[in-house]
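Question (not urgent): is this output format expected?
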Amino acid sequence: QVQLVESGGGLVQAGDSLRLSCAASGRTFSSYSMGWFRQAPGKEREFVAAISRIGSSTYYEDSVKGRFTISRDNAKNTVYLQMNSLKPEDTAVYYCAARGGTTSYYPHQYDYWGQGTQVTVSS
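Got this back:
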């Protein structure tokens, strides 16, 4: 029983940075692995990053490696996605998700989803 709310999206220029936050409600936040996904208009939802329950392991889609960093603060029930060197192709609605298990690349394996936050990167 987890509710997720994303925030921090907005309109930025290429090369700029943005930090997304995902605030979770629930007493067992640390029991969930967390992921970030994104979906651009007309495209399927794709994996961006994932982090294990205590943050010891992280995984990234190849196109964002070296630019994005996923982290979590279990004391604050919050997951972050730091996005640097943003590109126009990063434009999408970004969703955070929680999974009652190990980290996963696949949307259908996640149990809970936020409603998303829009990230727009201009040329």
